[in-house]
Amino acid sequence: MSDLTTFASHVQEVVDDAFRIRRWEPGEAHKYMAKVGQRRAKWEALARHLCQDVVRPRLTTVAMLFPNATMSDEQPPHSVTCLFEYCDRFPALATIEFSVEHDVRFENVVLHTRTRLMPVFVLFNEQDNLPLPLDGVDDEEVADWVEERLLEFIDTYLRIDAVGGTLGELSAIDPVCGMQVLQSASVATGSYCGHPYFFCSEDCLAEFEKDPTDYVQVKTM
Q1: Is it the case that residue 14 has pLDDT exceeding 90?
Q2: Where is the TRASH domain (predicted)?
Q3: What is the DSSP letter of 213?
């Protein structure tokens, strides 16, 4: 490790080399940032509109069908979230979130959705994106995409109820994180001493394979 003086000298050299090259003409950077600011303002207005006028009404329609569903009031800007609490019929916590994001130059709008399910009983598409040019966003196209994602979520959520009667036979406990997973829907599987194990993620499987004895006890005769 170099001392602070050496580090400061190296940083100074890097900065000096960069400043020797003029990359912006006088006033050019200001004009560029002004254009970016205009695009950002347009994106913010569009994001508010899509969340409030396109996404929220459709997500609210779904939430009204489930007594355990609640539209979240605590959420980041430009996003809409619905929470599904644990209940006897649906023994899992579920969340579906839609957000309106942007690229680094505010030239494109990115619709993003993410579904969370805990514990994982069924296979499902966790997230999806719809990129659109800032000047080419069509409400009908966005609405169709949102509705398709919501129908996918409903199908996933209803499958929790469908497997409820057989969870005792079909479920297993991930030995690494302790999550209950459906054997037929587990993301990864492994074995140790002839016994199969089921995992919620490849990361848990990799951790297990480092040293299975950290997570299971093998009975010896």
Answers
A1: no
A2: 174-212
A3: G
Q: Rounded to an integer, what distance in angstroms lies between the CA atom of residue 158 and that of residue 89? A: 10
Amino acid identity of 78? Answer: H
Structural element, H or E, at residue 189:
strand 188-192
For residue range 75-109, what is the model confidence (pLDDT) as tens digits?
778 999 999 998 877 878 899 999 999 999 999 99
The residues facing 82 across adjacent strands are 71, 96
pTM of the model: 0.66
Which tokens hold the place of 107?
């030239």
DSSP letters of 54-123? IIHHHHHHHHTT-TTEEE-SS--TTEEEEEE---SSS-SEEEEEEEEEE-TTS-EEEEEEEEEEES--S-
Q: How far is CA 206 from the centre of its chain?
A: 22
What mean pLDDT is reported for the chain? Answer: 85
Give the DSSP H/E element, type plus range, for residue 26. none
